[in-house]
Each structure stands twice: as C-alpha cells, then as structure tokens.
Write a structure and sequence with these properties.
Helix content is about 75%, strand content about 0%. It is an all-alpha fold. It has one domain. A two-stranded antiparallel ribbon has the order 1-2. Helix 12 runs antiparallel to helix 13, helix 12 packs parallel to helix 16 and helix 12 packs antiparallel against helix 17. The protein is globular and about 70 Å long. The two termini are about 15 Å apart.
C-alpha cells in the first residue's frame, strides 16, 4: 500500500524525465506516457479498494515524525478523487495521440512528458498531509501547466499564459505567507495536527486563517471575483491541454478548500461561502451566455459549476459536503469530455465559433450524441450524473432551510441548459455556412482514436449516474471523515 501511494506520485515524474529523453523517438515516448498513466490509474483503483475496505492509509516519508516530515495520507476522499483524476488524464492522452498531427494538437515532444509532471503534481496535491507540501504540489502543477499552455509559442497563448501565471503566482505568494501564519499560530503545518489546534485558536485568528486560505484556494478554484484569468487563458490552449485544465486544475483548488475548511472547522464562514457560491454560479453562467465560441462558453461554465461545490461546503452539513464531493466526482469527467468534443468540432470544422458552423448533426451524428449527453448532464437533467449531484445539493440546501441558495442553484441550472441549447443550435442545427473554414486533415486512424477516447469519457459520465447509489454512499462516508477527522488524526499520529 505504501509503495502504491508513493508510485502514483514519483512514477509520473520519473516517466516524464524518461519521456523528455525520448523526445526524438515518438513511439517509445508514447509507450512510456500511456503505460505510466495506465499503471498509476490501476494503482489508484487499488488504493481506493484498500482504503474503502481497511480505512485511511498513511506513508511517513523518510520515517520522520508527522509534524516534522512529509506525510502522505490516502483517506476515502483522496482515494476517490485520485482515481477519477488519473483516469481522466489517461483518456485525454489517448485523445492527444490521435490529434497530434493537426494544427490544433499539442506538440507531443513536450506535452506528453510535461503532462506526466503535471500528473505527479496532481497526485501529490491530493495525497499530501501537510500545507507546505501542498504548496509545493501547487507550484509543480503551475510550472507544468504554464509550459503546456504556452509551448506552441502562439502570441495569444503567451499573453494568456502570462495572465494565468500572474494570478496563480499571486495566490502562491499568499499561500506561502498563509503557511507561515498558520505555523506561527499553531506550531505546525501538518493537517492532522491543524485539525486539532486551529479550532482551539481565538475566534478572530481562526476566522482570519479561514479567510486567507479561502482567497488562496479560491484563486486556484476560480471563484468569483478571483476567476478573471480562466476564460482568457483556457480557450487559447490546445484541446487536450484545455481538457485537462478544465477537468482538474480548478477542481484541485476545490479539493483543497473542502479538505482544509472542513477539517479545521471553519463553519463560521458558511454564510460567506454561500454568498460566494451563488454569485459564482450566476456570474459564470451569465458570462457563458454572452459568448459566441464553444470553448469560451465552456470556459465560463467551469466558473459557474465551481459555485455548486462551494455551496455544498458553505452548508457545512453532512449532506451538503457529501453533495459537494459527489459533484466534484461528476464534474471532472463532464468538463473534460465537453472540451474533447469541442476539439472534435474544431478538427472537423476548422473553428469553434458558433457563427462559422452549422448542420453538424447531419454530417456527424455520433459527434452530436457525444455532445448532447454530457451537455444535458451539465445542465442537471435526469437521468444523468449532473441531475444526481445537483439533486443532492438541493436536498441538502432545503434540509438546511437555505432557500435562497437553492433558488439560485436552480436558476443557474436553467441558464446552463439555455447555453447548451445555444451551442446545439449554432453548431449542430441549422445549415452549413457556404464560407465555412476547413479543418485540418486528420488521419483516419487519428480521428478514430480521438472519437474513441471521447466515447470512453462519455461512457464514464454515464457510469457516474448508473452507480449513483454506491457513489453517494462513498461520498457520504468521505464527507463524514472530513467533518469528523478523528480517524484521520489517529492514523497520522499513530
């Protein structure tokens, strides 16, 4: 178990170095990349099965005392998110292999190895048991994502990359000061110890810590008003890179928010979090409705959907946090697959602008189906996973008598459906423009692989709805562990 936990972090980093050494041997590089991603995904599944059966597992790196050294902790929440995250990256890389011969594809000499570095950072962020190592994980993700965002060298990518880096470096600076603040107040940065000591602090100090890290993690998660970097940077990147960013990067910020604020008992921030959640939902979906490009619409929806997870956290109830966990599991594959469909549209039509496309449903009915299923799920219509996740959050809000946020959530869902209809009418319905651009000539095998990978991702989203009952049970257990971290603390300090 300890070896598996270590390998899901170290394995991708080593493989990334090997991939860079094999940059002039594309077939060998692909084997290393896909093989590593498949292996760590299988290891993550094994970790989840073991944790579900035996409880939290802890790795003390170097055998140091937990308060002095690095601790890796696989509890149910971490194991669930880890499986979904690594499986998503694996599917996206399959798509990337098919797309790489088009002008829309990322440069495989860099994208594959750097994606492995990003994978190692994501795994570390999920499994770390202390704040400073979490900071290191976020920086590893930031460096890798900047390279992935700008490596093609297009002027638009460089400009958006600078915005992305500037905002995230600002958050990182605040993060580092926050770590120092927490250490000065509690004498530790270990999560298990903080779960015991922060609730004992004077009220103003405790709330100050909570607000500080709300800004830090909120910037990473792109909550309103800290989201401006996202809609401008994501659409400029190659499709596969944007798909990974959409599915994972903001969700890691949400993961950190859920972990830190529940374990340290920041329920005083509940009303503020509900306000932030409601504003994030509406501002995000309003921005989506104002766009006329598939990628920009989907980018604003990333912001909007973050609001639903913050809503669950803001309720600070078992049902609310469980709903947030389930929504997080649902959102990672949904956002990824929608951007993959956007890549297929771009490959087919040569553009993602709504006014330059039309009638695609008649020419590519499978592509229309691949869009419709996750789009309806994103809007929260039954029987899809989005309906299950949103229903859980609405039920939690009703039970908590938080009527206003429930109304906002329902309005946000209705507007989300409207924006999906806008894409459908612009891309798949109507007639084909006479002056439409022509997409790059993707080899038949490459297009088959891109469509196959997208189909697998769509199937995964349907599986979330199909197994909603077991997933809800796991989410509820994960939420209970977050709100009552006694077991987590005991395992770390044993």
């Amino acid at each position: 178990m300890s070896t598996a936990i270590a390998l899901v972090i170290v394995g991708p980093l080593i493989a990334g170095a090997v991939g860079l050494a094999l940059r002039n041997r594309p077939r060998a590089r692909d084997v290393v990349t896909i093989g590593t991603l498949g292996a760590v995904t299988a290891l993550a599944v094994g970790i989840l099965v073991r944790v579900e059966a035996d409880g939290t597992s802890v790795v003390r790196v170097g055998g140091w005392d937990p308060e002095l050294g690095i601790v890796l902790v696989a509890d149910l929440f971490a194991a669930l998110v880890l499986v979904v995250a690594l499986a998503t990256i694996f599917v996206v890389e399959l798509f990337a292999i098919g797309q790489r011969r088009t002008e829309w594809g990322a440069n495989p000499r860099l994208s594959g190895p750097i994606l492995l570095v990003l994978t190692g950072g994501v795994s570390l962020a999920i499994l770390t048991g202390d704040l400073f190592t979490l900071f290191v994980a976020f920086e590893l993700i930031l460096v890798a994502s900047y390279v992935l965002l700008t490596h093609q060298g297009h002027p638009g990518q460089t400009r958006s990359g600078m915005t992305y880096v500037a905002m995230n470096l600002f958050a990182s600076t605040l993060f580092l000061f926050g770590v120092a603040f927490v250490y000065a107040a509690t004498g530790t940065v270990n999560m298990a110890a903080l779960a015991e000591r922060i609730p004992e602090l004077e009220g103003g100090t405790r709330v100050g810590i909570g607000l500080w890290f709300l800004v830090v993690f909120g910037t990473k998660a792109a909550i309103v008003p800290l989201f401006s970097w996202l809609p401008d940077s994501y659409p400029t990147a190659p499709t596969t890179i944007t798909a990974v960013f959409a599915g994972l990067l903001t969700k890691i910020g949400v993961y950190a928010l859920l972990r830190f604020h529940t374990m340290t008992g920041m329920d005083e921030l509940g009303p503020l979090l509900l306000i932030v959640a409601g504003v994030t939902m509406i501002v995000g979906v309003a921005g989506a409705l104002a766009q006329d490009d598939v990628k920009r619409i989907l980018s604003f929806h990333i912001v909007s959907q973050i609001g639903y997870m913050i809503m669950g956290l803001g309720l600070f109830t078992l049902a609310g946090v469980a709903g947030a966990v389930l929504f997080l599991i649902h959102q990672i594959p949904i956002k990824t697959v929608l951007f993959l469909v956007g890549g297929l549209i771009e490959d087919e039509e040569g553009t993602s602008a709504l006014d330059r496309i039309g009638g695609l449903a008649g020419r590519r009915p499978l592509l229309a189906l691949l869009f419709a299923l996750p789009a309806l799920s994103l809007a929260g219509l039954p029987p899809f996973s989005g309906f299950v996740a949103k229903l859980a959050l609405v039920d939690a809000g009703v039970a908590d008598t938080s009527t206003l946020i429930v109304v906002v959530a329902l309005v946000g869902s209705a507007l989300t459906l409207l924006s999906m209809v806008k894409i459908w009418l612009g891309v798949f319905w109507g007639t084909q423009p006479e002056d439409r651009p022509t997409g790059p000539a993707t080899p038949h095998r490459g297009r088959w692989l891109m469509t196959g990978a997208t189909s697998v991702a769509v199937t995964a989203t349907l599986a979330v709805a199909l197994f909603a009952g077991p997933l809800w049970d796991l989410s509820e257990r994960a939420a209970a562990e977050l709100l009552d971290p006694a077991g987590y603390i005991e395992e770390v300090q044993r």
